[in-house]
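Revision sheet: structure tokens.
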Amino acid sequence: MKTALIQMSCTPDAADNRARLAAHIADAAAQGAELVVLQELHNTPYFCQVEDTRNFDLAESIPGPSTEFFGSLAKRHNLVIVTSLFERRSAGIYHNTAVVLERDGSIAGRYRKMHIPDDPAYYEKFYFTPGDLGFEPIDTSVGRLGVQVCWDQWYPEGARLMALRGADILIYPTAIGTESSDTPEEQERQREAWTTVQRGHAVANGLPVVSVNRTGWEPDPSGQTGGITFWGSSFVAGPQGEFLFRAPQHKEIVAVVDIDMRRSENVRRWWPFLRDRRIEEFAPLTRRFID
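Predicted:
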């Protein structure tokens, strides 16, 4: 399956961001892409660096303007698009939501981010209600997509549940980077840990993983930190964790990667991790901590 990763920087001009995404999607289609994956919250800068109620004005309904815009692009170019939107569900209830658009422009399904961080420069709990749709793959014309969002990628349980429900591929729209106070050594440890844990999901579940991150520096509107430098490094890993593609850190890219979707079958025959799970012993996993 020819899968496109669009890694780009975002400006404060949402119309400009959408226009550039439209051009990149057209480029991906010209390269034969069947599936396009966009980064987390791609319409705007990463507004969660500050807690500001005015930022709720950025949210929109689903269906809404963005699903109409990207749905029209999916239909025009005959491909499936994974988007990442700030969803206004109701007054006071907002979600960080991935929406998958089918080739005909319709909504194939959505996933609401389950794990919500609350760290310096990542104040997402202020904005997002935790997801309530579970870890359910989304059926499309290109396969069953196990879509999660950013912070979810650190948790093996979500990847496993997607795999057990028949996902053909794991997909993570992402917005992650480093704050200027971290040493270069710490910044690199974090980037490599982020990559390694997702490659682990590929190995443990025998599935390809697609992770698409933003790039570029975005200032902290409050001035309390040095802002975030998003580390790019979007990648595709095969079902043994092997790199099929890895983007640079500080460059916008449109990459089309041909993923052999039949390979997972053979890998799971060689490494039957799902067969050998001791499910009768796993009940304690539902506890917060085992004292």
